[in-house]
Specification:
It comes from Thalassobius vesicularis. By secondary structure, this protein is α/β, with parallel strands linked by helices. It is 31% helix and 20% strand. The chain is globular, with a radius of gyration of 17 Å.
Length: 267
């Protein structure tokens, strides 16, 4: 478990996860965050066409990044994304195409950089202490939702406290849908992802801003038509290229029932 202490951070912090190889979305987010602190919860590479350009943009920015499961897998030259999809599901089958596409684009230098990323980052902001993770603490690829039972989140907090001590807030990503919960006095903040819309029929993606101890959620408008076109030209046509246009995921396998289409609530 690699832990990085970022120290004290000042001013608004733009929080986001999952660029997902979507260069168009990442470029738009970087433009919005210009002159502010930025922090990424991992999974730089995934569904989109531009894995290496996204890694290059993130590295050039110098922003803190925690390792997502995809970073772990690319760093170790694994054969799959390690996303936690059940074998044989639509998400699992689609991931084989986009992961292979991202893997081919990676350089040895990029893999070495990914191998050095922390699993947990901690910082203080406005008198509060935060920890940044990717999915969960017990498992990097754990899917946690606005509807996840409180005792599951409490277990993850216990695991986190064992590694880094008490915190006032947890910032994570991975699941793809932003939410905020409060468990035992700790704010659990999923900042969402910028590379794929949150399955609500809106093509805009999600990020969050931490300011004065409060978090706010925002939608990111970007050239989603260009991003979808880039995927099509790369042969990445498993359905996620259409999700960039429609705002609906091609599969809801991983979603709990209350978050599936027709009963969507972001929490």
């Amino acid at each position: 478990m690699k832990i990085s202490d970022l120290g004290r951070l000042e001013g608004p912090i733009v929080l986001f996860g999952g660029p997902y190889s979507n260069r168009h979305a990442l470029s738009a987010l970087l433009a919005i965050g210009q002159g502010q602190s930025l922090l990424c919860t991992g999974d730089i590479c995934a569904y989109g066409a531009d894995a290496r350009p996204c890694v290059d943009l993130i590295r050039a920015s110098g922003m803190p990044v925690v390792a997502g499961n995809v970073e772990h897998q690319l760093a170790t030259r694994a054969q799959d994304c390690g996303c936690g999809f059940d074998e044989g599901t639509a998400c699992d089958l689609a991931s084989r195409g986009w992961f292979a596409h991202a893997d081919v684009q990676m350089t040895d230098d990029a893999r070495a950089w990914m191998a050095g990323l922390p699993d947990i980052a901690v910082f203080t902001h406005s008198g509060r202490r935060y920890a940044v993770i990717h999915g969960g603490v017990s498992a990097n690829n754990l899917f946690l939702w606005s509807s996840t039972p409180e005792d599951v989140l409490r277990h993850e907090l216990d695991q986190l406290h064992a590694h880094v001590g008490p915190v006032d807030g947890v910032i994570c990503g991975h699941s793809g849908i932003a939410f905020q919960r409060r468990v035992d006095g700790v704010d659990w903040i999923n900042a969402g992802v910028i590379g794929m819309p949150p399955n609500d029929g809106d093509a805009r993606t999600e990020y969050a801003v931490l300011s004065d101890g409060q978090v706010s959620f925002h939608r990111l408008a970007y050239d989603h038509h260009g991003a979808a076109r880039a995927m099509q030209e790369a042969g990445l046509i498993q359905g996620y290229e259409q999700a960039l246009l429609t705002g609906h995921w091609p599969s809801q396998d991983i979603l709990p029932p209350q978050l599936r289409r027709g009963s969507f609530a972001s929490g």
